[in-house]
Amino acid sequence: MVSSAMHPGPGTRDKLIDWLSELLGRPGGSWSVSQRAFLDSLLEGDEGTKTLAELAVATARIRASGLQAEQMGRLRDVHEAIEEFWNNPSAETYEELHATGKILNSDS
Per residue in 75-90, pLDDT tens? Predict the structure, then answer.
C-alpha cells in the first residue's frame, strides 16, 4: 500500500503565505494576484513548501546578519537572486534562482 502525502489545503496555504510575509517583513497584500497564485502553486506540494520555507528562513538570517554585499563573497549572487524572487515571485525568477544556485554549487 502506497501512502499519499499530505498537501496543505487552501486555508493552510493562506496561513503559510501570511507567515512568509511576516518573516520577510512584507506588508500584507504586497504581492500581486499572479505572484500570490505562483506562491500558492508552490505551496500545493511538499517540495515547494519546503523550498519556500528554507528560502524565507535563509533570507531572514542573511538580513539579520548585518553583512554588507561586499562581505558576502559568493553568497552575494544567491542572496540577490533570492531577494529578486521575493520581490517578484514568478516562474521566471524561480528559475533564475535555481540557475544561480546550480552555478554556485558547480563552482564548489
Answer: 899 999 999 999 999 9
Whole-number Å distance between alpha carbons of 6 and 90: 24
The 3-state secondary structure of the chain reads CCCCCCCCCHHHHHHHHHHHHHHHCCCCCCCCHHHHHHHHHHHCCHHHHHHHHHHHHHHHHHHHHCCCHHHCCCHHHHHHHHHHHHHCCCHHHHHHHHHHHHHHHHHC
In 3D space, the residue among 92, 62, 90, 56 whose CA is nearest the CA of residue 76 turns out to be 62
Q: Are 104 and 78 in contact (CB under 8 A)?
A: yes
Grid cell for residue 83: 531577494
pTM over 0.85: no
